[in-house]
Structure formats: C-alpha cells, structure tokens
Amino acid sequence: MSIFAGVGSTSLGPVAAGWIEANSHLQWLRLIVTALCLVLLVLFMRETRTSVILSRRAKKLRAETGDDRYRSVAEVELPSLKTLFIISCTRPLRLLSHALTATQHRQPGLRDKFQPGAVLPVRRTHALPAAYY
Q1: Which domain of life does the protein's organism represent (predicted)?
Q2: 3-state secondary structure of 22
Q3: Where does the pLDDT of residue 133 fall: very low under 50, low under 70, confident under 90, or very high at 90 and above?
C-alpha cells in the first residue's frame, strides 16, 4: 500500500489537478481539497526536527522531575541574532558554490562542454563548516 501511495500520489496528483483546472466549474473542489489537506497536515504530521524534539523532551523531563538540569543543546547554545542573520544570508551562496563544485567533480567532462574563454564557477577544495548544513 505504501508503494502505491508513493508512486500513485506523484502520478495521479498532477492528473487530477489538471482535470480540475481544465473544468472551470470545479474550481471550488480545488479549494476544498487544499483546505482538507492543510487540516490533515496540521493534525497528523509529526515534528521531525531533532532540536525541537529534544527541546520538548527536556521540557517534559523538567516538568515531571522538577530538575532544571535537563536542557537540550539547542536551549544551552543559543546563537545571537546577528549570528543567525549572517548565517541565513550567507548559507545559500555557500551551498550554491558547494553544489557547483560537487557537480564538476561528478562530471569530469563538464569543463569540456564550455566554450573557450567562458567564465567557470570557482572551484572550492575545502569542506564547508558544519554550521552550513
């Protein structure tokens, strides 16, 4: 069943959406399906971010035991607003340069496809710091 959900949803979803879009009298159906999916997502989707899960677990342990020593790493090592802003602004550029470098390493003939004199992306040989992943 899970195989059908993975394959069927990715193939039947665009077909159904195209059919609804083609039939202009069914536009209300798209709004109902979207609202239903949003409600189901909010009700049944579980948190997957590790730092949030550990923070909630530590908060629950503090409430149960009354011991304030239970803290998650995310609660102890809170970066400053300036640090968060700098990381948010520079991370996309660093990841973009890393992706271009990784593409060049996987496809050794990629440089041959460029015209002579073309500007090539800068090749970085060092790994990115863990803060950028």
Answers
A1: Eukaryota
A2: helix
A3: very low
Query: Does the pTM exceed 0.85?
Result: no
Q: What CA–CA distance (Å, rounded) separates 39 from 42?
A: 5
- Cβ–Cβ < 8 Å for 55, 78: no
Digit-coded pLDDT (tens) for 47-68 = 888 888 989 999 999 999 998 8
Write out the two tokens for 48: 């997957």
Close Cβ partners of 86 (under 8 Å, ≥ 6 residues apart): none
Report the alpha-carbon distance of residue 133 to residue 121 in Å, rounded: 21
The rounded percent of the chain whose pLDDT value lies above 70 is 67
How far, in Å, CA of 43 to CA of 58, rounded? 23
Q: Give the amino acid at 31.
A: L
Per the CB < 8 A criterion, the answer to whether 94 and 128 are in contact is yes
What are the boundaries of each domain within the chain? Answer: 1-45, 48-78, 79-133
- Look at the block and give the residue holding tokens 């009354």: 66
Token pair 């607003």 is found at 81
